[in-house]
## 1
Amino acid sequence: MGNRPPIVVIRNLCKSYFRGNQVIQVLNDISLDIDDGEFLALMGPSGSGKTTLLNLIAGIDKVDSGIIQVGGVDITSLSETELAQWRAMNVGFIFQFYNLIPVLTAFENVELPLLLTGLSKKERRTHVETALSVVNLSDRMDHYPGQLSGGQQQRVAIARAIVTDPTILVADEPTGDLDRVSANDVLELMERLVHELGKTIIMVTHDPRAAKMAHVIKHLDKGVLNAHPQTDF
Amino acid sequence: MHILKLIFKNAFRHKLRTFLTILGVAIAILAFGLLRTVISTWYLGVEASSASRLVTRNAISLVFPLPLSYKEKIRQVEGVKEVSYGSWFGGIYIDEKHFFANYAVEPETYLKIYPEIIIPPDQKSVFFRDRKSAVAGRKLAERYGWKIGDIITLKGTIYSGNWDFVLRGIYRGRDENVDETAFVFHWEYLNESLKKTSPLRADQVGWYMIEVTNPNIAAEAAVKIDRMFKNSLAETLTETEKAFTLGFISMTEAIVIAIQLVSFLIIFIIMAVVANTMSMTARERIGEYAIFKTLGFGGFHITGLIFGESLVITMVGAALGIFLTFPAAKIFGKELSTYFPVFIVEPETIYMDIGAALVVACVAALFPAWRAVNIRIADGLRRIG
């Protein structure tokens, strides 16, 4: 990764939730650097705070204390509106259940994030076609999510995540709802995104096979982070 | 463009629920439109009244007559252009169920003052010549299949006996709001008969109709007329035709208010129905709204999606309701022509329909939109799967 500064810098991050009157400490003094072009897997038991950490890095939740810098921007200081704009430009999301809009075609789903940009219709079409070709779904662009398999839907979701060329991609259990073959396809695709397109991916997973694809594996347990570097990278 | 497509697609995702909501809105708008038409019909006489026409009646009550001799005195008042007079006859045709307005007038002056009543010239000249003749409105003649030359017999209630009239003319209204269900005949015919049967009631009229040269002097002329008959045996009350008509309407004000309340109650009920639909819709799609927010769409977009969907459902229902209002009003008007001689859906009623539908759509979308905008993304995403 050379001497380039980390793309994500997290310092002394704390996050807690209220359950009734009880305060649940979810993340406790987390500090972490993620390099540009890195594929990081976050693992840990249920309730360890993996998804919460991912949500905080992606700017869809607010920290109690600490700093998160993504691409040099301290996202903890941004307002809700600024954060929404920042997410649109800098973060691509891949969810466990794909989260495609069922009444829109694959093309329209991928085009959604581009509606927030100033691109013309023609430019949007070019971007969408490129993204769909990256995930090998150019021939399915007019299909609705209900007409696609789980693996294909996840690939559409990946196309939607990369179409704006974001700074980071966050993936929450991207293979959790897929069969083995489809899961392998999706993981290979994510690896291609890192190797060929230089994308930075932060992935939450329970699946050790999925984690194996990552450059770095971090373990969260009871809100505390433990490093576990990937040996075969 | 996709947002619009999404709004339309979302609106019809739950087809049965959307269909039932649209049907509910359509029926509510139809009922609202008909009730508003009933109210506007109630005031139609007021709208049809002319600013340059006055009505003079007995100051005690319309029931009490005025001497015929007042006519020439009224004519002398400065600014008075024409004077006519009439008496309510209240005759019954066949039986009480077949009600229509019937009154005796002085034909030539009456038709001068009311140029909106159009009678073909040949029929008019025969009507003027024949004292036993009468003219009927087009709708009334159609209702009973009357033709020129038919003998119409009315049973007197105020003036006893059976009264035969020869139908010499059928009038139509110059404007849409002219009552075409009235029956008018010669006051002279009534008076001649009274001279023979009850002479004390002869030479008396129910009211005077006065045309002034200029609407601006109407109030002044009214004061002059009433002052002229001050301290006489029959003091007068002169008012504009509009005020005279409003006086009648005020007697039935409670009914009008009740109809108005019911019309707004209907809108309130349908507002609750649409709000319920939109709440269910927003609750089901809270995960999708969270996805939109995750992708960077702001509260403005989420609000637009929910308000848009509410507008699509409500406005489709409203369009259907408005479309059905016209044939329904035609049937309604035909069936109840006895009570509503003119039953026209006014443009204002349609504007009110549209306005009510817009209010329903916006109010129904308020709470779901507020909820969707304010839900935390993480909580919204947790609802998926």
## 2
Amino acid sequence: MINITLKVNGEERALSLPATRTLLAALRNDMKLTGSKNACNQGVCGACTVLLDGVPVNACLVLAANVAGREIVTIEGLGEGGKLSPMQQAFVDAGAIQCGFCMSGMIVSATAFLAENPKPSRKEIRQALSGNLCRCSGYVRVIDAVELAAGRSGA
Amino acid sequence: MEFHQPTTLDDALTLLAADPEALPLAGGATLVAMLNAELIEPSALVSLGGICELHTIEATPEGGLRLGAMLSHATLASEARLTGGNAVMRQAAAQIAHPAVRNIGTLGGAVAHGDPSSDLPAALVAADAVIEVAGPSGRRSIAAEGFFEDYLTTALEEGEMVAAVILPPQPESAVGHYEKFARVHGDYATLSVAVVLAMASGKCSHVRIALGAAGATPVRVVAAEARLIGSSLDAGAISEAAALLTAASDPVDDVRGSADYRLMLVPRLLTRALAAAGGAP
């Protein structure tokens, strides 16, 4: 077992885990932060996307022991004081959510993308979210939601 | 499983030499996916993340660039010094998978994996890059063209790893372009064409071409380049060059396209790539 600390959603977390434990498994099983979803476990679907030192990564492709001491933000850490983040609110308002399983990854990816590109075209939004699969295939309103969030932040 | 986090390349090599079942861990984009799928069961992992030397980009005395193996695809995709002919590397890195994967995956990891459908191998061959390999008996340099030996098989020997990629200075007016065809954004290429092209007075003065996903390794045909050099890149010259490249290709049939379909793409993508690199009439 390896002893590490991670800063998760602003909080220092001490963990003891095997070397092969992914960040996703550490978040979900050790820290009970189940917002990040485990679907493909291969870096294909994007449902596990979290921010590692501010940039989106597939938590299933990262070994927790390999990111000791670094800062993680999950879907649970995006909002402040019990309120939804602007991107979360835009997804709700645009009706972007069907079954909801891919939403945390979508919203984390979109949050990082908009910080980098505050006025994206729809094509740029589609490309930025191309690593986040929705098996309900409800992509149109997801793109609407990111556009809505971009418009609001620019207002 | 043991987990090592050395801070020098020598320490990493010593750890790998001491345990033949240990594997070096770069970004993890491929290795951790294979662990998750229980395809590999290494006795130990040697993380390369803490080795400063592997994260650097520096100019070489010859006027090229030395890229450390642990640079992420995202870093390469935004590297301003990858200009001119070497822009082919920046463009290829920018088209690997999706943003979250590009933030994890590394240059050295992709090179060592040697997947002919991935984006960097063809770009490296077109750029005439040299792979700097570090191992128990020191360092050696291998031209990218000879490094990729077969499907997922490279010239790396037991205990060796990729330390850096060296890009040569390209001809002054050279333009690099990576033309990737995939049905879905971010997927592996159905076929790709990497070119480094220089034109002088309307004639091609330098060209290197490598195809991705066209065989077990990047496909380069010297005779195809020779057919283009000195030409104005007219349709006839491109068609003959494409025929030579097509004849040397041996793509697979898979979910991304049949072998025949891939071969059909060769002349079309070559024409696009040369035009994008400034060879358009």
